[in-house]
Amino acid sequence: MSQTTTPPAPDDPQSPPQATPRSHSSQPRRARAHPSRPGHVGTSGQNQLNPIFAREGEATDFPQNTLPDGESLPETAYQIVHDEAMLDGNSRLNLATFVGTWMDEQATRLYAETVDKNMVDKDEYPQTAAIETRCWKMLSKLWNAPDPDNSIGTSTIGSSEACMLGGLALKRRWQQARRAAGKSTERPNLVLSSAVQVCWEKFCNYWDVEPRYVPITDEHKVLDGHDLASYVDENTIGVVAIMGVTYTGMYEPVALIAAALDRIQAETGLDVPIHVDGASGGMIAPFLQPELVWDFRLERVASISTSAHKYGLVYPGLGWVIWRTVDDLPSDLIFDVTYLGGHMPSFALNFSRPGAQVLLQYYLFLRLGWDGYYKVQKASHDVAVYLAGEIGAMRAFDLWNDGTDIPVFAWQLAKGHTENWNLYHLSERLRLKGWLIPAYPMPDNLTDVVVQRIVVRNGLSLNLAESLMVDIREAVDYLDRLESPMPTEGMVSSFTH
User: Fold this and answer.
1) DSSP bridge pairs for 291
2) Which regions are flagged for Pro residues bias (predicted)?
3) Which end of the chain is more exposed for a tag (fewer CB within 10 A), N or C?
């Protein structure tokens, strides 16, 4: 068995107990007791307590889609919701998601103690507001802002909101410059990769910006500055560079993109800024690839966003966005609001939102420091490289990338390997063992290419990775022994980026 540093994990991790499946109905009915049938499993559209949990008067069906007529004991309501949640399965075996699924006991306790704090109410919770500022200033320094004290940032619900704010700032700066020059502010456009995360499609749709997608190809697997001049014009508000493409985990070379924009400015006078979508890589590159120039060391990078609940290692519900300087965030996007007796600046899309995750981020910054983050990210990185090497060595597969950027990699079925099965079938076989490993088509221009992707997060140890490889080899061996093709009717990708 190979050895490597494994990420922190609970001393005694627990798997959810098994639960019996239930049926659903769109016709809920009035709750009624079944005293004569203690072993009754429950009627369609109802939740029924297992008799082992029942107290007097509790062997009752609860409607699923209508508000119950009366109250129930808190223990009863808890047990029902607890048992429903069990059916989701084991989140640590979900290798489809980037979102963190584990924090330590102290973090969980801190979460429970601070879940009632409203992050936006800075007058009522001034210490939480001060901690928020400390966090984004730490990130500003981590991302090499030229003058961290002159940068500005904020927490967000997630990296999607952070991207929306970054895009809005790009659009508003472009509008102001156009008005100052006496030019039209109609038809703004944003240049991005065809492999961009869906939040950028939403941004362009919601804020009337034309998306200009640069297609990825076998030759140019990411947006790398190639042919960028064909997409940029005087209406371009910015270019999005992705540090960790969600399809494959690959970095887009921000320095090459910036160099291409420098050449365009020299030839045309167009000064086009970059927003770096560092949803994943923003919390990987500073620790594992510190020599890689992708951040505020490049003058053309105006803003950077990241997802704290991905490789920031916090539970779901937190993102960050930081601007290179105060001037890069147009002041008219900042509102001075009166809230519960105090004045505060606000430039988030959401208003009331939880403050607990901000405190969890601060806890992790104090708990891990630079060295701790390096160790955790390096452990995930080592597991990703191990898995990519093992899968790449199998004759059934060709790697798309090798997991050496963020701890994420993808592979495709080797050409000519088989006509009897595809990666969707492999995904289904692995799901039988509890593993969630999606198969999906690549974006426009490569939609005929189907890949599978593994996201290695804190909590996927080397031992678990070795168990996964046993299951992958067994599944491939089973599929390769098929004497006729597996059915494909109705087989579609339900995976979305």
Assistant:
1) none
2) 7-19
3) N
3-state secondary structure of 136: helix
> CB within 8 A of 224, min separation 6: which ones?
252, 253, 256, 257
**Architecture of domain 375-480 in this structure:** Alpha-Beta Complex (3.90)
For the domain with range 109-364, which CATH number is right: 3.40.80.10, 3.30.460.80, 3.40.640.10, 3.10.50.30?
Answer: 3.40.640.10
Q: How far is CA 404 from CA 218, 222, 291, in A?
A: 19, 15, 14
Beta bridge partners of residue 61, listed in sequence order: 48
> For the chain, which residues make up each domain, given as ranges?
46-87, 109-364, 375-480
In the numeric block, which tokens belong to residue 170? 């790009």
Spatial separation of the C-alpha atoms in residues 266 and 270, rounded to whole Å: 8
Could you tell me whether strands 342-346 and 61-63 are parallel, antiparallel, or unpaired per DSSP bridges? unpaired
User: Would the CATH topology of 109-364 be identical to that of 375-480?
Assistant: no
Could you tell me the pTM of the whole model? 0.85
Tokens linked to 37: 């049938």
pLDDT of residue 348: 77
Contact 378, 5 (CB under 8 A): yes
Does the structure show a pLDDT above 50 at 87?
Answer: yes
Q: What is the pLDDT of residue 490?
A: 62
443-485: pLDDT as tens digits: 988 889 999 999 999 989 999 999 999 999 999 999 999 999 9
Tell me how crowded residue 75 is: count the other CB atoms within 10 A of its CB: 11
8-state DSSP, 365: H
